[in-house]
Amino acid sequence: MISADIKRLITRQATPYNAEPPAPELTSQWLTPTRSLYVRSHGKIPRIDEKSFRLNISGLVERPVTFSLPELQERFPATSTLATMVCAGNRRNEFALGGRKAPGVPWDVGAIGTCDWQGVSLAQVLKHCGVQAGTKHIWFEGLDAVEGHGDPFPFGASIPLEKAMQEQPGEETLLAWGMNGDPLLPEHGFPLRNVVPGYIGARSVKWLAKIVVSDKPSPNFFVQDVYKVVYDDKPESTANATPIMEFILNSAITEIRRFDNNLRIRGFALAQGSLGNAIERVEISTDRGKNWLPARIITAPGKNTWSLWSATIPAEGVKTVTVRAFDRAGNSQPESQKFNIKGYQLNSWHTLPVAGAGQGA
Amino acid sequence: MISADIKRLITRQATPYNAEPPAPELTSQWLTPTRSLYVRSHGKIPRIDEKSFRLNISGLVERPVTFSLPELQERFPATSTLATMVCAGNRRNEFALGGRKAPGVPWDVGAIGTCDWQGVSLAQVLKHCGVQAGTKHIWFEGLDAVEGHGDPFPFGASIPLEKAMQEQPGEETLLAWGMNGDPLLPEHGFPLRNVVPGYIGARSVKWLAKIVVSDKPSPNFFVQDVYKVVYDDKPESTANATPIMEFILNSAITEIRRFDNNLRIRGFALAQGSLGNAIERVEISTDRGKNWLPARIITAPGKNTWSLWSATIPAEGVKTVTVRAFDRAGNSQPESQKFNIKGYQLNSWHTLPVAGAGQGA
Q1: Among B64, B75, B108, which Cα is nearest to B89's?
Q2: Is the CATH code 3.40.50.300 the one for domain B250-353?
Q3: Which of A71, A325, B96, B272 could make an S-S bridge to B249, C-beta 3.0–4.6 Å?
């Protein structure tokens, strides 16, 4: 059963439920309304009784603890973080344009959104538990049950300790119960999830019930086998690949509208999720990359949050529009990109045809 | 008739309708949900038929124009701006603590909020109309009817041309039809209002129907007589005072909660609305300003948007908590402040008693 407001999304996969908003809806405002945020699930969406819910923290800690939600809310000061959430598979369906379809949820450009998350600081919770020497990774585990790979098991993730201990505004990982000022919807992890600014969505675990402090990355299937960039299906290639952590520099066109003799073009750009990074500039091309024009960045840059941009150009003769972005860390998007068999981190220039331009226009 | 969601607010004045959220609700998230934004009106809230609505632009322009809402949306590219809206009279009721009550809406700390506004760039609209040489001010006029000062007349404002022509993200004035991704509510100016980042709320006119390009400031009563800082009621004092434009550096405590033997303190801080300014630091005191401790700024700084902060301190013996903020432009809040007869721009240190601390604690 999907929440009423969420049903408006475009379903990309019915079971498990995966859905994204229509692209123009994505960038009609800077902050993504809850009804417009993509839903990524790996199993059935669990319905959890808040009263019986517990978060357990164990592993290399001085004091293992179990918190009910009110206990967590009482014990630590509430905080609020703006962060872009993006699936590592966003834009996956474009791999098919290169002649090879990637398996997995066939995302268009909409598996991304920017929300205001409410919760407590993971770093402060970990300090409370007393992280032991030798700790290198923090594991997260949900209350969902993923099927199709043997016995059902929960989705899981882990992040390096160094990231988990960040406390700067905009860089801090949250244990979050709220989204845009409301409790989380079931589709977004009610009653609790973690939110890791700057990291791919898969590192933010919904229906979060277990945190393990460890000297190793999580052994969870989704860390060890799934969210990795690999170029062949040899088991050792996957075993040797590093799990994806930071999201990649990206940009996409969400809307091309004709007005009088002009085209109005809108979209988003997201800097690589590195500490202190931000979008530097966005450019568009109408000749598939021979010449570039600056787009207008219409929102002030933030940490680990997208920038919206727009451009207005004469429509005459324009059959396609291409976008590319640059970030302050010196990254730029490639013209094209080698196929990876799981279809992750597609960030080559994004090109859309202009509707009605016609073959001979 | 007040919209259902808005009725939750605390009414500060029934006619005209003025209301603010409970203070803790204000800072439970960075972006203010529409249901939690204060409502400031000077007359009855008009209900406007979107179909017959027109925006007229006249005065010192090459091309006077009249736009329906769809025409405005078609003609100019849509944009989105995060901006804090704050009433110049916010915290007015604190003047009474100094022994002298200021007339006007008795605001506590809640006549402030930060929203994501959707609309078009005023600068681009003005360029389209062709601003003539000699222009110095842009006037705005609403469709409300303010009573009690002779014949009913619309609320109005004006801003300097230089401000109106700003086009940088976060500094740009919008003609806005949307708020947090939804159409404006009637209480917030449906179908159109302007939003001036960095300026007091009174310069952002709701139910906006008329823009006049001029060599003079607007003659509207609310520009010439009302939103000014004056220290006596002589007509020449008011006539000689400059209308308030930028909002002032400010901070306030929104919540003090006891937990175990600690106090959890939360609040907001807002830098003066100067170009490129932002909050630099926030400090709290438990001895009314003899000693200060740094508060933790929990949200990344933005342009013309507030910062949220929090602090946790031992509760023992603490009877009051005081906050003060500093901004990058070098402003700091004063310990105390001279009374001004209209009760504007109160920004002295904000002190709250700790509930249950008792006289002898």
Answers
A1: B108
A2: no
A3: B272
